[in-house]
Design goal:
single chain; 250 residues; Rossmann fold; seven-stranded mixed sheet; three-stranded antiparallel sheet; binds S-adenosylmethionine
């Protein structure tokens, strides 16, 4: 039985598709890309399209989504982060003195839109980022093609991939959290993202595995008011709307 997630892809500009996309189309073991003529993709379809040099996801309900790493990195450059005050840097144990070969070896097990991965990369780390959803992974790979960064991006369930890799010092984990009852709707990107990915129901199981794999600590991102994914974190670092629960490995 083919359990791959089927993804519709417009044939627009097929001659100018980047190599990674051409390879993904041929890699039937990993991706199930169904190429359709642009004119056949109706207004009630969700699909990928390569347009204006960018891979984009078209959601019939919510609109377009692509990731722009250049914009995000420029934003970080404009901030004057003090690592000793940034909750994420503190939770991960990234200090200003972690430079070059001394940078921490960190896995972002849940790359998603790449926002946290980019921030961790900006803070400074030897970073491997995992994404298991094929559509999100392809959007991430395209963003990295347009704006290359020193990030080892891997398309796989982090636990499966991680079992064959040397252990990192830190595993960062930000699973999809069940929707909250909120009056204000989340941003468009979040709506599209949630629609694609759904919920990460295996989060607790993953955390238990991460605690056996990381050599130094595991950090879990939670909404500020949520209960910890596992009780009694070693320390918690509060941001505006989020909290980073850190579990130290002793
Ligand atoms: C809440 S989002 C992460 C958001 C991310 N921190 C960001 O900055 O956009 C969770 C993402 O991680 C992926 N994911 C969840 N569990 C995973 C796992 N065990 N291995 C690889 N990817 C995973 C999901 O497919 C989803 O894209």
């Amino acid at each position: 039985m083919n359990e791959l997630i089927k993804i519709k892809m417009s044939d627009a500009q097929i001659d100018s598709w980047p190599l990674f996309l051409q390879e993904a189309v041929k890699d039937h073991d990993k991706f199930c890309l169904i190429i359709e003529p642009e004119r056949k993709l109706c207004s009630n379809c969700d699909y990928l399209v390569f347009d204006k040099g960018t891979l984009q996801y078209i959601s019939s309900e919510f609109g377009k989504m692509s990731f722009n790493f250049e914009e995000t990195m420029l934003y970080h450059q404009r901030q004057r982060y003090a690592l000793t005050k940034e909750p994420l840097a503190r939770a991960l144990g990234i200090k200003g003195d972690n430079k070059g070969d001394n940078k921490r070896i960190i896995w972002d097990a849940t790359c998603g839109t790449g926002k946290d991965t980019l921030l961790i990369s900006y803070f400074g780390a030897h970073l491997t980022s995992f994404e298991r959803h094929p559509l999100i992974y392809l959007l991430l790979q395209d963003a990295l093609r347009r704006f290359p960064l020193d990030i080892d991006l891997r398309f796989q369930e982090a636990k499966i991939s991680g079992n064959n890799l040397p252990a990192p010092e830190v595993i960062y984990f930000d699973p999809m959290y069940p929707s909250k009852k909120k009056s204000a709707l989340p941003r468009k990107e979040m709506l599209i993202f949630k629609d694609i990915v759904g919920e990460d129901l295996d989060a607790s199981e993953f955390l238990e595995w991460a605690l056996t794999k990381a050599t130094e600590r595991v950090v879990v991102k939670r909404p500020s008011e949520a209960v910890p994914l596992k009780l009694k974190p070693t320390a918690s670092y509060k941001g505006k709307s989020t909290r980073y629960d850190m579990y130290k490995i002793f």
